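Handoff note, outgoing to incoming analyst
You'll be picking up this chain. Sequence as last confirmed:
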Amino acid sequence: MDNGHGRTGFEGRLSRVGWAAAAIVIVSLIAATFFGFRTYGTYRLLQSATQSGVPSTSGIRPWMTIGYVAETYDVAFITLAGRLQLSPDTDPKSTLKALADRTSLPRIDYIQRVQRAVADTAPIQKSSTSPGWLAALNDGILSLILTYGYAAFGVTLLLAALGLPLPSGVAVTIAGSLLAQGKLDWGLTFTLGIFASILGDIGGYFVGRRLGPSLLANWGPILGLSLARQTFLAGMLSRWGALTVFLSRTLISTLSTFVSLLAGVSRYSATRFAVLSLVGRSFWMFAYLWLGYTVGTEVEAAASFLRNLSGLLFSLLMLAAAIAVLIKGSAIRLASQ
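Most recent structure output, in case you need it:
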């Protein structure tokens, strides 16, 4: 009787896990499809904007009106309309989406046509967004890297890995654009970037290991590591240690410092942590350098592409994990019969 109840309870838990995994498969498939289309679209717009000779046109989107595009890029409306083979009485408030639908062209193809038209006619190129703190910060980092070269690049990544709020992704993307101009060397930039990032990761790890739980208790909330976030990340490290360390160096790099500290506090294997950091940072470094090399200094547009790509990769990872759980559950059911 007990065995029957025990088996029934086990099968019930297995069924619940199976249903949860199936739900994750469906959600992951939808998310992967969504991010897949967005990743492909943003990459095509980045590529065509660069090829047109006016990288700032990568900011043109279907929701914009034709009048807004003309004003933003300082193009006479009548000239832009003529380039797009629109009638002179076209309403400036017509969206690019609506204009694309009239021509039966895919929207992304129509946006690329607009990019080329702007590149051919705009006498003065202006950014599609007003300069803000991000643009100023980007300029400052670029100036430092241009002035001090590899030293500024390495220090930026080291301090960012240690937890300072520096845009390391921007720095690497800009370095990639300098690689395209022949001002930096691929091998040296890649090696230095990984070394500086891993040095910061290991530094954070040993700070956590040396100071222990008192660090999180006293400084966690100040550093933005709330008790709820500490509990969540600690649980991830306990259950999926290697995956958590790897993902925090790649797809969710904003959590890298927190994970480094928690790995040290929990006395996670230092060797394993270093190896996973090396692998994760290598992927991350190559992706950002390649993006900067491909699209130049249009960092905000490139960041949009990276967000979509990260969403796609994370969705595929969740999909693979859920499928693995379903396969394992099926194997257990077969073995128990």
